[in-house]
Amino acid sequence: MNIFKNKKDHKRFMYLHPLILSIMFDMQYWCEERNIPFKITSSVSTEKEDEKLKRVSSSHRTGRAFDMSVLGWDKKRINEFRTVFNNKYNHIAAISGFTGQPTLIVHHNSGHGDHFHVQIHSKYSKEIKLAQQNLPPKE
Ligand SMILES: [Zn+2]
User: Within a domain: residue 48?
Assistant: First the structure.
């Protein structure tokens, strides 16, 4: 099963921090058990790509966040998912710039489809030199 929406993110996801990767696979398992579609729409990005998307957080380019589509999920599932995983990973979640609280999952629709932004704490930031790592160009 391919859980990635596009090749670029499939090739880059290995640069994510191991903690956010294990959360990703935990979420995949949760969805599979309930027959809910699971699709990663974004993983590691470059600063240029973040600028283009007007991203305010560095979490994608520092390897501690991914986005997953929740298109077609019903409200009950969305709430259940957020409760389960926010509680489970509260201790390593990113601190929200808006609330000052640990926030693993941000639910938003920024014009690129309804999705969850999943993020861990900035202390897990990695310096990822995508340009020097000969990564495949954006599609
Ligand atoms: Zn995101």
Answer: yes
